[in-house]
Design brief:
It is a single chain. The protein is of the alpha/beta class. Helix content is 42%, strand content 14%. Helix 1 crosses helix 2, helix 2 packs parallel to helix 3 and helix 3 runs parallel beside helix 5. The chain is globular and about 60 Å long. The two termini are 30 Å apart.
């Protein structure tokens, strides 16, 4: 049934956000340690980034490392940071005209990782195709708390009146202020929850959950998710009749 869904290349979601879940469980199925799954998952990132760019996706945001992930065993965190350092391949971005950016608490990352990330951001700044964003040391509760602090400080400094605070004010203080909200949120790995990811931004996103572990999520799986998205009617609070007018 899923394979029969029509895929329309002219109606690609502008912004796709992905919760890349299942690396550890995939590795366990292979009889390997969790880091083996993370290595395989890193290769999937390259595959999906290239396919998304080819399809015409404008923004691809990947939940790479959450603030809660700092609570994992130290050896796994170290392995993840080393993998992140090794897998930031500027040539992949340059070859596919992809601009690279990050959101999250960059200052918590190891210095060598920060330097590698910022080097890639600078080198790809002129690219005009898809923008790929890694959410690193990120969580929505952290982001919204930071936005509230910034707005409160502006009120305290007399730069902003309380009465002037609107939804747009909050959006302007989010780390995602430079891009539109996701049209489609994909979560792999069989879990059905948001896990503190882009909660404000995904208020009206279409949600797609699949059982496929992230290392096995390939071009066909991405197309399947987009095909599901294309079957949905996005009403944004309106009725079907209003949308069709």
């Amino acid at each position: 049934m899923e394979d029969a869904l029509t895929f329309d290349p002219n109606r690609i979601p502008a912004h796709i956000a992905i919760i890349m879940d299942g690396n550890g469980r995939w590795a366990k199925q292979q009889g390997q340690v969790r880091t083996f799954g993370h290595q395989a998952g890193a290769q999937t990132v390259h595959t999906i980034a290239e396919e998304a760019a080819r399809l015409g996706v404008k923004y691809l945001t990947l939940y790479t490392f959450s603030t809660e992930n700092w609570n994992r065993p130290e050896e796994e965190i170290t392995a993840l940071m080393n993998l992140l350092f090794d897998q930031i391949e500027e040539e992949t971005f340059m070859k596919n005209n992809i601009r690279f950016r990050i959101i999250g608490q960059e200052g918590r990352l190891p210095i060598k990782v920060q330097e590698r990330l910022n080097q890639c951001i600078a080198r790809t700044a002129g690219n005009t195709g898809m923008t790929m964003i890694l959410a690193l040391s990120y969580s929505s509760r952290w982001e919204l708390t930071e936005a509230a602090r910034q707005i409160a400080q502006e009120v305290k400094d007399g730069k902003l009146e309380v009465e002037d605070i609107q939804a747009e004010t909050i959006e302007a203080h989010l780390s995602t202020h430079f891009m539109p909200d996701p049209d489609l949120l994909i979560r792999t790995g069989g879990e059905v929850r948001m896990s503190n990811y882009l909660l404000w931004q995904c208020a009206y996103s279409e949600l797609y959950f699949c059982d496929t572990f992230w290392p096995d999520f390939d071009e066909r799986e991405l197309r399947k998710a987009i095909a599901h998205y294309q079957q949905r009617e996005r009403r944004f609070g309106k009725t079907s009749e209003q949308v069709k007018q």
